[in-house]
Structures are given as C-alpha cells and as structure tokens.
Amino acid sequence: MAYLVRRVLQTVIVVFGVSVFAFGLMFLTGDPAEVRLGAGADLMTADEIQEYREKMGYDRPWYVQYLDFLGGAVQGDFGDSIRYHEPAFEVVRRRFPATAQLAVVSLLISVALGVPIGVISATHPNTWLDYLTTFIALVGQSVPSFWLGIMLMLIFGVWLRWLPISGRGGWQNLLMPSFTLAAFSLARNMRLTRSSLLEVIQQDYVRTARAKGLSEYRVLFGHALRNAMLPIVTMIGLQLGFLMAGSVITESIFAWPGVGRLIIEAIYNKDFPLIQAGVTMLAIAFTMVNLIVDLLYAYIDPRVRYD
Amino acid sequence: MMSTVGETRPEDEGKGNVTMQPPENGLVASRRKSRFAVLQSLVKRKLALAGSLIIVAAVLTAVFAPLLTGFDPEQIEIKDRLKPPGWEDSDGSVHLLGTDTLGRDVFARLVYGARISLIVGLSAVFLSGSIGVLLGLVSGYTGGFLDDLIMRIGDIQLAFPFILLAISVLAVLGPGVGKLIAVLGFNGWVQYGRIVRSQVVSLREKEFVEAARSYGSGPGRIMFRHILPNVWGAVIVIASFSVASTIIAEASLSFLGLGIPPEVPSWGGMLAQSREYLEIAPYLVIFPGFAIALTVLGINVVGDWVRDYLDPHLQDIV
Questions:
Q1: How far is A278 from chain B, CA to nearest CA, in Å?
Q2: Is A146 helix (H, G, I), strand (E, B) or coil?
Q3: Residue of chain B nearest A29, judged by CA positions
Q4: Which residues in chain A come in under a pLDDT of 70?
Q5: B101 in contact with chain A, both atoms CB, cutoff 8 A
C-alpha cells in the first residue's frame, strides 16, 4: 500500500514537472514573444512587439502565466493550434490512436519474435544458430532506427515495390514502421531472454527437475521459463512507454499520422500551442503507462515493493 | 584474466551474462564443452578485436580527415549535384562516393562527419559522466536530505522521455553543436549518479574510509582520493555504452533537423538531406547510415568486452 502511494505521488510530481517543462519552453530564450514571433520579430518595431506581448499576455508575471497555462491544461485547453485553427488538444487527441497502434504492434513484434528466438538461442548454446542470433541482436542494438527504416523503405518500397512507403492504411502500411520501431527492443529482448534463461538453467531446482526424470520440455516450460520470464516481463513493460515516446522518428520517416510526427511538424511550423499540447500529452501518456506497469509488477512480484 | 573468461567461477554461479558459458551437465554434452569454451572466448575476443579496429579506424578518420580527401565538405557546387560514386568533375578529381544534393562530395562529408559524431559523443559523455559521478559521490557520501533530493531529481528526469525533451529544447534554442552537447550531456548523468552512489554507500563504512577519517581527511579528500578509484570500473563501462547511444541520439536529432546545423557535415544530417532522393540516389542514404551503424557496433562490442574484462560482476548492473 505504501508503495502504491509512493509511486502515485511520484507520478503526480512528474506530471507537474512535465507541465512546468512544457510551459517553460517558451521562456528558454527569455522572451516568449520573440520565440513565438520567430523571424518575423526582426521586421517589427519595438512597439509592435510590445503590443503583441500585451495582447498575448506575456507581460504578466511568469507565475500568473504559469497558473493560467496550468488551469487551461487541466481542462484540456492548450489554446488553438496556429496551423489547424482548432483546439490543440483535439488535434493531438485525434492522432493518438495512430501512435498507440504503432507502439502496441511494435511491442507485440518485439516480444513474439524476441522471446522465442532468445529461448532457442539459450537452449542451443554455442551452435552457429546461437552465434548468429547473438550477432544479429548486437547489430539490432547498434543500428540507428531511422537508417533501418530508410533501408527497409529502399528495399521493400522502392526496389521490390512490395510495400507502401508512407501513410497509414492496411497491414502493409503497418509492417515496415512497426518493424523499424521494434528493432531495438527486439534485439534487447533476444539478448535478455537468452541470458536470463541461461542463468536460470544453472539453478539447483532445474537440476532437481531433471534428476526427477522430467522431460526436457517440462523442465523448460514448467520450471525454467517461468522464473526466467520475470526480468523479461519487467523489461517489456518499460518498453511500451519508450516505444510510444520513441515513435517520433519512425513516424517522421514513414509519414505515419501519429502524435510524434505532429510534434515535429509543429516544431517546423513554430506552432507553440500544438508543441506544448503534444509534448505534454505524450509525456503524460508515457508516465501513466509506466505507473500502471510498475503497479502491476508490484502486484505480481511483492519483492518489488521494497525497492 | 582472459584465460578464465570461458570458465564459470564458483562465485559467479547464477550471474546473468549475454555471452556466458552454458552449464556443464546441461544442454551441451560434457565432452564438447572444453572445445566450445575456448571457441567462445576466442570468438568473443575476435569480435572485440574487430570492434576496436573499427573504433581506431573511426578515430583516425576523424583526426586525419583533411589527409583523406581533397574536397571541402561544405563546398557547394550546384552544377555537380547528385552525381553517382566514381564521377569525375571538370577538374579531373574523382568523387569517390558521388555528390549530394548540393554538389558536396559525399566521401568528404562522411569523413569529416566522423569528427562531429565522435566529438559530440565523447564530449556529451564526459559532461554527463562528470556531473553524474560528482553528484553520485556527494549524494552517496553525504546521505540525508541532499541524497534524497538528488535522487528524486534523477527519477523525475528519467521519467520524462529523453527524445521529447531534447526535441523541445533544441526546437526553441535552435541548432548548434554546443547546445546539442549540453542537452545530451545534462540528460545522461542519472545512470552514473545511481551506480556511483550505490558503490559509495557500500564503501562508506569500510575500514579504509574510517581510517582516513581518523587521521583528519575531510569528506572531499575521502570522496576523491579513496572512494572514487574504486568506482571507476562501473563508470568506464557505462561511459563506453553511453558513447554509442549518444552517437545515435545525435544522429537522430540531426536527422530531425535539430542539433547540428545542416551545412556542417554530420552523418545524421546527411541522412536527413538525402531522404527525398531515395529513389534516384540511394548511395546518399546507404553510406552515412552504415558509418553510424558500424561505429556504434564497434563501440558496443568493445564495451561488452571491457565490461567482462574489468569485472564480470558488472553484468548484473550494466
């Protein structure tokens, strides 16, 4: 119970920190009016800039502005997007399902492929298969995801013309982006499953199970894997949050209509309400996912609570 | 040390390891074990050797860039844009890997780009390492409120997805190598801080610290002279993996147009600028990405080996 309270409190602080950060973005260079106006500020007189400042309320003390921002944010009001001319919150909310879909599918791929391969690798150690998969995993963790995405696009989209290279639609559209996003996690799951399982296999209870005469199959699935899965499941839980936040680049490459790409576009357009809304909501989603995952694990494995 | 890499020492039973040895009476027949043990340590060493060669090549390329190519990586020559590899221009000089969308020599940009990747990678890691070690020492040794505060700040910082933070900050501040190093550097301190702190806490009560205190050493001296040397191993291992991930982070940010200004040659920037020419000039995309992947692979492989060499026990935490 104490753990629950502690974690929730921590999450509240983090969300609070996120709001401060999103708000503070405009003040990074000191003057929000100049940040907002961008290059156009050079063409304006000092009076005009001051007029703009007053109109937007930037001349008020920062804490007043922050409370204003916070009050609005809590109600989901981040102001209107400069480009889309509708509430920034709405624009972001519409794109969320796309990002969520990409993240979830990527997670599924990284688990459905990564864990079995890791198991095979651990149960056939030192074979060419083991070395091959270990090497692939190493490469998978070293290759920058955006390059992988571009290479996939080149091979499957341009040269072979098997898959569409952009946009969201059927499963063909989903295939390359999700693989690109999943690559790093896939590699990590492979390595982690392998090492975790190898460690478990050395334990005494596995030796006992074998001594009892159980078939290798039973030993593996009934005893070894169940205990090896814990660090793996922990890692997987953390991955979902990272996949959501990390989709920014993959979405940009494949023109996937998600929140990440929206934020990037908003940055190019200097659409500040949209940037604030997008960053805040994505960060909060990330935090919430981690919170839920953490609480779930505290429930499953009581040892975690005494961290 | 290297000769015992293949065997499992009694006190290492049950330690997690990526390339660890499988058990004797397990899934590999006992009589084949000794051959495989040697093979595995040899493979691992060969891999690490290959990795270090890659790193050395990257460093040499960065340092001796002007000697490797006669072209100026930033010189724009629109009439010569998008030429394929091996193309000879009007001066008779050959563009080994062709030219990019503004007519700049690809090989030159690749070679000078190594400088950016390595400089940013090493500087950012140095920065985050310094901050992290310092805060970790202070936090672990002092304890109490300061300790709590520092660790809480670290937790909060970890809870925020880094890429969003980096993108937002750089979007407002604009591109620039210094700003990029600062963002990357200030972000990564937490991992060092935590490890150093836990090491400090476990060493704090040992006799040699008590002895130092008894003959009048102040906390600063104890922290730096006595505790710090014991903490180096983990820090170095984390740092080596951090360089790899920082290089990728820098490439990603440059790819998004934030971070390195577009005229400065950087591998990530090269990828960004050549994306739209994927169909007509795929070589523009293949080489920079391959350079990044190869360099990072080399660093990761060597990092693995360094970790195993310095202290296999680190495999649990790193």
A1: 10
A2: helix
A3: B173
A4: 29-30, 34-42, 302-307
A5: no
